[in-house]
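DM from R.C. (forwarded with permission)

"hey, sorry to bug you on a friday — could you get me a structure for this? deadline for the figure draft is monday and I only need the backbone to look sensible"
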Amino acid sequence: MIDTHAHLDALEGIDEILTRARDAGVTRVVTIGTGIESSRRALAIAAEQPGVYAVVGIDPHQAATPEASKVGELRELVGNPCVVAIGETGLDGHHGAETLHEQRALLDDQLALASDLGLAVVIHSRAASAETAAALAPFPGAVILHCFSEPDLLEPALERGYFVSFAGNVTYPKAQSLRDAATRVPIDRILAETDSPYLAPQPVRGQRNEPLHVLHTLAALAEARGQAPDELELRIDENANVAFGLGS
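My reply, with the result:
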């Protein structure tokens, strides 16, 4: 099993965390940068840990800060063979509605970088589905909608063949709309993630999230879709290979 989105640089005790994950069958993790220094830490972790890949980017919450001027530094990081995508980047109208203009500029810069380099993008979108769909429309590469939580984005995602990744919030009792969305995602476009250390799934809600807990998300997705968990696990692994250009 693969956890397609974790912030390992925000966790302490990475060796122990990854050992627990591997013992449970979660043998691969994609660790995500949220800024330049975070991306450098993600790269260092990926270089040290087998089965860990890095995504480098500047998240939308930093769009109105000096960090947003450092997209050029991302290009320098992308030469590292551990890098498999650009992100997370995107638009957040819930935490930062007043900076949506700056967020769009930062997103556009990172989309251009990903397009130039032939890399996928990992997209954060909250309370900005129409704006996100519009920004992504010209992008020619693979799109991973991380922590999918906006059903209004589902139609564009289905039409354009985006990868749709579900996190621990799909397990929450009140998240039926997300489970319904998960039933509509084609089998070759669905992904699962933890967003560690955030959004712990329902069986461990309130605890620090970590990669092994992606198995709870897998179980919820399998139940919603009426699939066997082991079958869905194999397909998610295959989908991640395609989305991020990973080896098996």
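R.C.: lifesaver. Residues 63 and 105 are 8 Å apart (CA to CA).
me: no worries. Residues 100-117 form the longest helix (18 residues).
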